[in-house]
Write a structure and sequence with these properties.
Distance between the termini: 38 Å
Number of helices: 22
Strand content: under 5%
Helix content: 55-70%
Number of domains: 3
Radius of gyration: 26 Å
Structural class: mainly alpha
Length: 422
C-alpha cells in the first residue's frame, strides 16, 4: 500500500499534526509487537499528557489494531467511526474528536483520511493492508526507541522525586523533634522550615534546603544535646515475614484451611492499624459509637477489613503486569504505598480522587485497590472502560463492607498461574 499520509482539507492543521504525518510516511519503520507498544505507550502517557478519556480512546484503538500490522511493512491503521468510539467511551463525538487530535499532536498517531472522510481498511487474501484510511499508529512504531528512553528518564525522575518527598518528611520530623526538645536553641527554626515550604523551587531543591537546615540545627546544638535515632521513618513493631517462597493460590486453597491463614494474616497485617485504632477508642469513647454506627466508620477499621486476609505475597503474585508497567516490585506494604502516585497516573485517576480514596480506606488499602484496578485494566481493557471510576466504585463498596479484595486477587493470581501452566 502507499506510504503517503493524507490529511483531509477540512482539518485545521497544526505543527503537531504535520510532524505526525511526516512520521507516518517513514519507510524505515522498526518492528515491534502490539503488546510491547501498548505497554510502552501506557507508561509514556503521563509524559505525553495523555489521560482521562484520551487514555481510554488510545486503549481502545490499540486494542482494535491487528498484531501483524506492527511488523514488517505493515501499517497499524484502525478504522472505527467517531460515533462508535463515542458509544464505547460513553462520551460525545466532539469529545472523541478532541481526544484523537491529542493523540495525533502527541506524535503517536496520524490522520490517514479518505476523500470522503470515511474510515475503512481493504486487505488481500494474506491479510495485508492494500488500502487503509483511519487512525495510523505508524508514528508510535517510528518513535519506539525514543519513547523507551523517555519512559526510562521519567521513571528515574519520579523515583528521585519520591525519594526527595521522603527526605523532606523525615527531616521535617527530625527538625520538629529538636524544636520541641530544645526550644531555646531553636527559636526561629520553625519559621525557616515554613519558609522553605513556600519557596518556588522543585521538590529536589526543597529537599536539599531542608537537609541544609537540619544540618545547621544539629550543628548549632551542644554536643551533649545532639539526639540519636531521631524520627526514624517506617518504624513498626510488626515481625517481618521472611519466607517469600510463593505457591499457586489454587493449590494453597486446596491444601490448607482458611481459618489458620486468616489468623496469621490478621496478626501480621493488621497489628499496627488495630493498635492505633485501640488507642483512639481509649482516648475518646465517643468515637466507638460513630465508628460502628450507620453514619461513619473509622478508616483503620475499613483498612483492616479490606486487608485482613490479603498479604503482600498475594498482591505480588496477582499483579505482575502492574508491577512490570511501573517498574516496581510489591515486596512490602511501604513500597506498595509509595507506588500509589505512579499507579494512579497509569489509570488516569485524578489527584483529588486518589487523596479521597486514601482518606476513606487508608493508604495501604487504597494502594492495594489501585494495583488491582490497574492489573485488571491491563489484562482486559474492554471490561474496565473507566479505571478511575472503577477505583472509586471499589472504594464505595469497601465503605459499605461489601468489597472482597481477597477474592479478586486470588482470581487474578489463578488466571496468571493457569496461563503459565498452559
Amino acid at each position: 500500500m502507499t506510504e503517503a499520509s493524507a490529511v483531509a482539507s477540512f482539518r485545521r492543521v497544526t505543527p503537531g499534526i504535520v510532524a505526525s504525518a511526516r512520521l507516518a510516511m517513514a519507510n524505515d519503520v522498526p518492528d515491534t509487537t502490539k503488546s510491547e507498544i501498548a505497554l510502552l505507550l501506557k507508561k509514556a502517557a503521563p509524559v505525553l499528557g495523555i489521560d482521562g478519556t484520551t487514555y481510554h480512546v488510545m486503549d481502545i484503538l490499540l486494542g482494535l489494531s491487528r498484531a501483524d500490522d506492527w511488523k514488517g511493512s505493515g501499517r497499524p491503521i484502525v478504522a472505527i467511526s467517531n460515533a462508535k468510539l463515542a458509544e464505547y467511551t460513553m462520551r460525545s463525538e466532539r469529545t472523541v474528536i478532541r481526544c484523537i487530535r491529542r493523540l495525533v499532536e502527541a506524535g503517536i498517531a496520524a490522520y490517514r483520511d479518505s476523500s470522503t472522510g470515511r474510515r475503512f481498511v481493504y486487505r488481500n487474501d494474506q491479510g495485508e493492508v492494500v488500502a487503509g484510511f483511519g487512525i495510523d499508529f505508524t508514528p508510535a512504531r517510528v518513535r519506539v526507541e525514543e519513547l523507551t528512553r523517555v519512559v526510562a528518564r521519567y521513571q528515574q525522575r519520579l523515583a528521585i522525586e519520591l525519594a526527595a518527598k521522603r527526605d523532606i518528611a523525615r527531616l521535617s520530623r527530625a527538625i520538629e523533634d529538636m524544636c520541641v526538645a530544645f526550644p531555646d536553641e531553636t527559636a526561629d527554626v520553625r519559621a525557616e522550615l515554613a519558609a522553605i515550604g513556600l519557596l518556588k523551587i522543585d521538590i529536589v531543591a526543597r529537599a536539599k534546603e531542608t537537609q541544609l537546615l537540619h544540618d545547621r540545627v544539629v550543628g548549632s546544638l551542644p554536643s551533649e544535646h545532639i539526639p540519636f535515632n531521631m524520627a526514624s521513618e517506617g518504624d513498626i513493631s510488626v515481625t517481618p515475614i521472611i519466607n517469600t517462597t510463593l505457591e499457586s493460590p489454587s493449590e494453597s486453597k486446596n491444601e490448607r484451611t482458611r481459618s489458620n491463614e486468616r489468623d496469621h494474616n490478621l496478626h501480621n497485617d493488621r497489628y499496627a492499624a488495630d493498635l492505633a485504632f485501640e488507642k483512639k477508642l481509649s482516648a475518646n469513647p465517643a468515637v466507638e459509637q460513630e465508628t460502628f454506627g450507620v453514619a461513619q466508620r473509622d478508616v483503620d477499621t475499613v483498612q483492616g477489613e479490606i486487608l485482613g486476609s490479603v498479604s503482600v505475597g498475594l498482591l505480588q503474585a496477582a499483579c505482575p503486569e502492574a508491577q512490570a508497567m511501573i517498574g516496581t516490585q510489591f515486596d512490602s506494604w511501604a513500597t506498595l504505598s509509595r507506588s500509589g502516585e505512579v499507579l494512579r497516573r497509569m489509570i488516569g485517576l485524578s489527584e483529588a480522587g486518589w487523596a479521597d480514596g486514601k482518606q476513606k480506606v487508608g493508604s495501604y488499602a487504597a494502594a492495594a485497590i489501585l494495583a488491582t484496578v490497574l492489573e485488571k485494566s491491563i489484562r482486559d481493557p474492554e471490561q474496565i472502560s473507566k479505571p478511575g471510576g472503577y477505583f472509586r466504585a471499589m472504594i464505595d463498596r469497601a465503605l459499605e463492607g461489601k468489597l472482597n479484595l481477597e477474592r479478586s486477587l486470588f482470581g487474578l493470581a489463578d488466571n496468571r498461574y493457569g496461563k503459565t501452566q498452559k
